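Incident review: delayed structure delivery

Summary: a single-chain prediction request sat in the queue longer than the usual turnaround. Root cause was a stuck worker, restarted by the on-call engineer. No data loss occurred. The affected request and its eventual output are reproduced below so the record is complete for anyone auditing the incident later.

Affected input:
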Amino acid sequence: APTAAPPAETAATTAATAAAAPAASKRTTKPAADRRSTTRTAATTERTPTEAPSPRAVCAGRTEFALYRCMQQQCDAKRWWSHPQCAQLRDADRRQ
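Output delivered after worker restart:
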């Protein structure tokens, strides 16, 4: 009888350990997507650009429509509302 008891205890202990192991590993490791986004965010914050001199500079590097849409969004902001580029954009939009 004493010989039969230890295997049952060992099986129960092994099952409990196996069930706890995946839960522990989930808490200690981040998914690959989280690691990539953290790295990308850190790299972005390291290269903090200086203050843009114009709304066009904020939107630089975009295709034509994306540039137009970005300029609209920037010019709607209080900061750029009175900028000459924004006034020109609003005049062009009214003429169309």
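Verification: Residues 5-28 form the longest helix (24 residues).
Action items: add queue-age alerting; document worker restart procedure.
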